[in-house]
Amino acid sequence: MTFMHRVAVIRGIEDKRVGEIHLHVARLEEEGRNLSSEIAKCKDGDEEYQRLLKEKERLIASEENAKTAKVLLALAEREAALRSETKETQEALVAARETANAFAECATSLQKAQNWGTIVEQA
Description:
The chain is mainly α.
C-alpha cells in the first residue's frame, strides 16, 4: 500500500467520523426540538395547576367527607406529577442542548483537522 493510499484511507475514516458526528448532532438537535415541544406542553401545566387548585377549593367548600378527601388526594398527586415532569423535561432539554453544542464544537474541530497533514507510519 502506497503512502498516498494510506493517506486516502485515513482521510476516508476521518470523513466518516465527521459524518457520524454530524448525524449525531442532527439527532440531538431533533431531540432538543422534541424536548422544547414537551416543555411548551408543560407550560400549560401552570394553567392546569390553577384549575386544579380552584377545583380543590371548591370541593373543600362544598363538602367535607371521605369522597372529597379522595378527590383532593388525587388532585395533589396530579399536581406533584406535573411539577416533577416539568422539572425533568427542563433538565433534559438543558442537557440535550449542552450535548448538541459539544458535538457541534467537536464536528467543527474535526472539519478543521481535515486540512491538516496526516502522518502514516511506513510498515
